[in-house]
Automatic annotation (TrEMBL):
Keyword Lyase belongs to the record: no
Name of the protein this chain belongs to: Bifunctional glutamine synthetase adenylyltransferase/adenylyl-removing enzyme
Origin species: Saccharothrix violaceirubra
Family: Belongs to the GlnE family.
Keyword Flavoprotein found: no
Amino acid sequence: MTESVRPTMSPARFGLTEARTVDHLRAAGWWLDRPTEGSEPVLVALSRCPDPDLALRGVDRLREAVDWPALDAVLRADVVLRGRLLAVLGSSTALSDLLVGNPDLWRSLVDPEPVSSFDLLPAVADRSGADAVRALRLAYRAALCRIAAEDLAHVVEPDLPYVDYDHVAGLLSDLAVAALDAALDVARRQVAKSDECRLAVIAMGKCGARELNYVSDVDVVFVGEGDLGVATRVAGTMMQVAGQACFEVDAALRPEGKAGALVRTLDGHASYYQRWARTWEFQALLKARPVVGDERLGRDYLEVVRPMVWTAAERENFVPDVQAMRRRVEEHVPAGLADRELKLGRGGLRDVEFAVQLLQLVHGRGDETLRIQATTQALAALGRGGYVGRADAADFGRAYRFLRTLEHRLQLQRLLRTHLFPADDDAAGLRWLARSVGFTGEGGQSEARVLLGEFRKRANQVRRLHEKLFYRPLLQAVANVPTEALRLTTAEAALRLSALGYAAPDGALKHIEALTRGVSRRARIQGALLPVLLDLFATTPDPDGGLLAYRRVSEALAETPWYLRLLRDEGLVVERLATLLGTSRLVPDLLVRAPEVLRVLADTSALTGFDPMTIGNPLRSTVSRYNDLDRAVTAARSLRRQELLRVASADLLGLAGTRDVCVSLSQVWVAVLQSALDAVVRAAGPAPARIAVIGMGRLGGRELGYGSDADVMFVCEAVDGATDQEAVKYANSVVERVRRLLSAPSQDPALQVDADLRPEGRQGPLVRTFESYRAYYAQWSELWEAQALLRARVVGGDEKLGARFVEMIAPIRYPAAGLDAAAVREIRRIKARVEAERLPRGADPSTHTKLGRGGLADVEWTVQLLQLQHAGEVSALRTPSTVRGLRAAGEAGLIEDDDATALLDAWTLATRARNAVMLVRGKPNDQLPSSGRDLTAVAAAMGHGDEEPGEFLDSYRRTTRRARAVVERIFYGS
């Protein structure tokens, strides 16, 4: 068929129906009587836009405003720009105006990397007045356009990544904070004497919770110190600048509302909330978050108000007040709009938010995991904690995200604040909204009908769950417990649990009900055990956590026939289990996967009667029986879990010393590593190389903690005529496979093999031959590497090769001539840099167990300096153990006995504290808790349960302070 008689094609095929569509397409170069070459991907993308005609009109306007050939070329070739730009043009007239008015702005949508942070300060640098407002408005709108483009792009180009509501809301909140920061910068430069005051801006509401809309007020509270008159002028100017450029800044949530002072001191806020605040104000404070201004003042504000937030539920009529407030909000919605009002209506967003906040405030008094600002995250935490059924939490969360997404899309159209769902007869509005969230017609229904059905379903779901959770009466759960001690009314049972020390008695009642529900034999045994366990848990640092952990363990072991029988017949097991579960979060996680260790709790000798040096032998023996690699590693993990739980139990019960714990953990790690290496070597077949594993760091010193990585180096040597290249290649494949197997995702504490202490660090080869190591250390070795080698020890693989390696490095780590003054200065310089750079931001150096003053690093570096200086002459210093090295230094007269004792006491205390934090929190952390139940639990785990937690902290600081004084004299020579 010739070109002249080829049939034409209608643009309607691509959803384009307006009268001037063909003119716009031709002007863009995308159409003659059908799509031009290369334009079809663009037209297909247009067809997926929420409003294809609106998108095409936007393209036509852009064509006249920008360098169209350049933009057209990118649109045809780049799916990222195509998806982002057309999605914005087909969704928002306001953002289309922005793009047309700023011809180069489209280029910001080309970057394939997602936006992650915002800095609007450069836009207002050296600007003031109307000039600053204009610059800030453009920068803010440009960033808003970028967020919207990423949010919508997957609708137009399905291959582009989907961006969920939580991420978008977080980005919008971060952008708002950046705008506040820029506005505050402008205000400080415009207000005279602004340096005479401190001002902190506290975000409230959705900005505080990082769940902001596209168009919303930003609620704030101001805290000031110094000249409050100046602070008030700065705050007012900031609000004016941000309001003119970006969004209204609303300070009505401050004490006394709009009638109150705009800026108050910290003491003024504290006094108001202690004496005058109403229930709703504590509910508002739930989402308070310092965002800009004076960081310390913001933190101090939170420290003042947070305790009040989490005791607000104790106020008289607290729950009825919150419920009444929700009803008042609902009553103010016009009757004709109640079913369409996404935010305030029945089944709307406020139904979810009020229910979640009430549950948080009631149960969060004792459960810190509920102290979360974002609604979706708090709802997930409520589900995890058992305060909301998992299915209900999931349904509530999905419905909330759906409604918030609809709200976002509606606001994007014209960048106006709206929460009104389209009317049933608004076919065009419903169709646009449905397509903007990715809905298509199905089952003969239009997009609009599908959207309507989903909206009504979600709204009804929200209302049902709101009424179920928000107006839930207390259950008579305790009546199911067949004991006189707990045969009480629900209110009486809650009071008794409170008196015992349970912070969330309602949550405890739910656990009791779950454990005793039904008339089975299991329920009867639990009914008999629980009165004893409740009293035992009450003596632990965390009764609520203990009872929750006990419920978890009981549910996990429900089908284990001997579990309850053991508890019923062995009183010692019950006592020890209560102590463990009420103190540690690590133990219950391990216990549900290694329940056989429960039997050992009844036998002290079985729990503690082991030689730490041989603890790994049974593990290696068992694993060696498996030829299948995966089964071998699974067996190694299982046996490690058992030993880890047994050691942790003995530790928490005060039955194991620090040395036994550290050596046991180190030897278990060695056994797992060696077993995995053996299994991989067996599976690999004939080996062209021998491999030795050299333990470094705490592994080399047999001083591992519960959360420590395994620092190692790998040495290989060719055998049977193989070349060095073949040996290294083989060894690399074996080592990489071992590391992959051990670091595979698991619910157990991590098994990370860290080889960063090898020559050249991360930049160096993972495996070297023996001769390569020799050559490197002879020519290139640096001082820090000699220091690292002080703790080197053979831990796996070929023992002879490992022994030769250790012999080879002896002159390097134990230099015969010691260290000259320059080397000592260099070590001191490196240590000082570590102190300055590695301590985490915000950490308390007086209670950071690793890098804090008088902590592990201080003691270890001091011992290592003495070793480098004197181990060439004093053979007793040639040990990878910090403790043995310290004792040898004392015996050799290199340090005074009192100094050695001070360092040893601090090292032992910091090691125990670091282990205790891991046991208590269930995850590695080098920082001692500063307060709360975690601190109480850490103190109890270290045998200080009879004293106030603050006394334990004071004791820790005194011990490490004495050690630091020794370090200053011996290490730094001061």
